Amino acid sequence: MASIGDSKCVLVIGATAGIGRSLALSILSLPSKPTVVVAGRRKDRLDQLHKEHGHDGRLATIQMDIDVDRITLRKTVEDVIALHPKLDTIIFSAGVQHQFDWTKPKVVNFDNFASELNTNYTAVITMITYFLPHLLKLGSSGQHCFIVPITSGLAIIPSPSVSNYSATKAALHSFGISLSVQLSDTNVHVMEIMPPLVESELHDHQGTTPKLSKIWMPLDEFTVLAMDGLKRGDLHIPIGAVQQRYDKFEEGKVDVVNAMFNPRKT
């Protein structure tokens, strides 16, 4: 089965901290020695990553903000492909989370709402669309390619306090299943990572980090489990407590979708 171990060049979007950074460094350490391109908004962190891990030339950095319009995203994708024509794997780790209280609709911040929707869903789908011609061409030559959206256990059971975040992850999860079925006759594979609550900076601006840090999964533990799934080539990688939710509500869904819409795959 095709797996991340086959990758020659991996782009990790949202890799200056947390899950993205940890996965990027783990992939850099794979025996296959892929090139890893880390992308993120914060140049100081990108520079630090390159200083610490770019000594052998296999780690490259790109400053990138995905909460932008589609014309800018198209140019970003074109630039990445021009710089890294062997790019065969893209991991979408960038994300933002806001709390919304719908019992107080007059104070709902729709700028935050729109930014969260774009960062977590619309921009991801837009970039996938722009990357696909390159990946499909590479795949037609026999190279296995991978699209790796990072969703959340909240895609299965939403959290009311982060309702829009949960909805964006549910949408990305659903889209990933459809995309995987449509690409099933190609060498472009969709592997979805579904984290539980994981140690990160995601919650710092909400002021909930002290509370959540008592119950979240340590980042190192998450990374080991996620990498195990990527190296196995699992199409869905539910981690920790998410595995139980996945088994109860999602197990077999892909088979049902195939049976209904792609019967030759059943």
Helix count, per DSSP? 9
The CATH class name reads: Alpha Beta
In what order do the strands lie side by side in the largest sheet? Answer: 3-2-1-4-5-6
* Overall spatial form: globular
- Tell me the domain tally: 1
- Which range best describes the helical content: under 10%, 10-25%, 25-40%, 40-55%, 55-70% or over 70%? 40-55%
Output mean pLDDT: 93
Question: Would you write up a description of this structure?
Answer:
By secondary structure, this protein is an alpha/beta fold. It has a single domain, classed as Rossmann fold. 46% of the residues lie in helices and 13% in strands. The protein is built from nine helices and eight strands. It has helices spanning 18-28, 43-53, 70-83, 110-140, 163-182, 209-212, 219-232, 242-249, 253-261, and strands spanning 9-13, 35-40, 59-63, 89-92, 145-149, 188-190, 192-194, 236-238. Strand 5 (145-149), helix 5 (163-182) and strand 6 (188-190) form a beta-alpha-beta unit. Helix 1 crosses helix 7 (219-232) and helix 4 packs parallel to helix 5 (163-182).
